[in-house]
Amino acid sequence: MKDKIMDRWSTYEPFHVVLGDKKVADIIITNHARSRWIDRVESEKTGFEDICAFLWDRLKKDQIKPYYKNEKDVYVVEDDLVMVAEFAIMENEFDIAGNPLHKMIIVTFLGRMSEVIELRDLKSYYSWLRHSRRMTLIKNSRKRK
Q1: Residue (of 46, 22, 32) closest to 107 by Cα position
Q2: Across 1-5, 10-14, 53-57, which has the greatest mean pLDDT?
């Protein structure tokens, strides 16, 4: 998902938006992220282009923030939607200073904090999730013996 508006008024520089220490020039949605979008976010605008346009708009408006200050892969959109993203350096794409540009790969959407209260504290949520899965595995192993 590329855009025509430029970060600097220069015809030589590809468009990018700064997110933390990354210069995002493209957004890629995985199939898993699209299925989670349909399940957890919205069921009407579900195409890859729709999701990219939404995220690109929020990225330009500076409405995508890291979930935790030190966290580099979990982000919050509009202080509500929690998503997991990875970054990869784009080949043969550089800004005018020669710094590499990145593509933002959306891995999954965890949901909206306004709907799923557990998402407000991910660390305790994942701790609980790991514990409950472990306990389920322990119970299942007891039944087999």
Answers
A1: 32
A2: 53-57
